[in-house]
Specification:
Elements lengths: L3 H32 L4 H6 L10 H10 L5 H32 L5 H11 L4 H14 L7 H4 L6 H14 L2 H9 L4 H12 L1 H17 L2 H6 L8 H6 L10 H36 L1
Length: about 280
């Protein structure tokens, strides 16, 4: 058994490690925010600075004067795409995992193996065929073509299945059926609330991945009023003689803010999920 002195030393060590990890996690974001307030010359001379400068409004003026950068349009398109993609991916992936876990059907194992095999195929491999299909049906500048594919998320199906097996008692589902509950009612009212921690975790990953996605929107979207925030930030390169790094960091800061808000909103569910897993263990 450890005495009080040894216990205090261990606690102090744990606190120090946690503080260091917190500082290391926040440091890149702080540098990005600070650089958004600095001029291009200051960034080129001293890439790292912990003290904000006075060029924030100048950087705001630079990005507002660029015709290719419209923060309101970018935010609107990115929020529509990321929000709808997250809802579709989490709901239908949970529904698919529910069908694999709860129902006993002949090709269940073969279907799950097929889903796992799809995970091995990179999205870039299928992009040419996907673009040709979208072009032929005339939906190259339609945001729906960036939302609908999120319904098929094999990695999320795998995660939801692994979480659902120990977390969802089949006796509850059977009891609901005996009471006369319909299948969708059982899923929406009983299964989904149990899956909240897993859904919140995957929702964060899906939202961040969809928000930061540059490749697919760059291929499918050609009209400026359909651009997402990553596309607009990628166009903040200035002319051939000078690149305004301060305005680029400001654009990156604006892009990151919604991700931080989403994480803060869903973090409590992730903590609840970790606590639930530790209690079960």
């Amino acid at each position: 058994m450890l005495d009080n002195k040894e216990t205090k030393i261990i606690k102090i060590f744990i606190y120090i490690v946690c503080i260091l990890l917190t500082v290391l996690s926040i440091f890149p974001f702080w540098i990005m925010i600070v650089n958004a307030t600095r001029s291009t010359n200051q960034i080129q001379q001293h890439a790292v600075s912990l003290i904000p400068s006075t060029y924030l409004m100048n950087n705001v003026k630079i990005i507002t004067e660029k015709g290719s950068f419209n923060a309101m349009v970018g935010f609107k398109n990115s929020i529509i795409i990321s929000g709808c993609s997250t809802l579709c991916a989490t709901y239908f992936s949970t529904l698919t995992a529910y069908a694999i876990v709860v129902y006993d059907w002949k090709l269940k194992n073969a279907f799950f193996s097929f889903v796992m095999a799809i995970m091995m195929i990179p999205a870039q491999v299928t992009m040419i065929g996907f673009y040709q299909m979208v072009y032929k049906i005339g939906m190259t500048n339609n945001l729906l073509m960036l939302i609908i594919p999120s319904v098929a998320a094999p990695s999320m199906v795998f995660f939801m299945r692994q979480y659902m097996i120990p977390s969802l008692p089949l006796e509850i589902v059977q009891a609901a059926r005996i009471d006369g509950a319909k299948e969708f009612f059982t899923f929406n009212v009983i299964a989904l609330p149990i899956m909240k921690p897993a859904i919140a975790t995957q929702a964060i990953f899906t939202f961040v991945s969809s928000w930061n996605n540059l490749f697919t929107p760059m291929v499918l979207l050609t009209k400026s009023d359909k651009y997402t925030m990553p596309i607009m930030v990628s166009l903040l390169k200035g002319d051939i003689y000078k690149t305004e790094y301060g305005s680029i960091y400001l654009g990156l800061t604006l892009t990151v803010l919604p991700l931080i808000i989403v994480y803060l909103f869903l973090a409590k569910y992730i903590v609840a999920g970790v606590a639930l897993g530790s209690v079960k263990g």
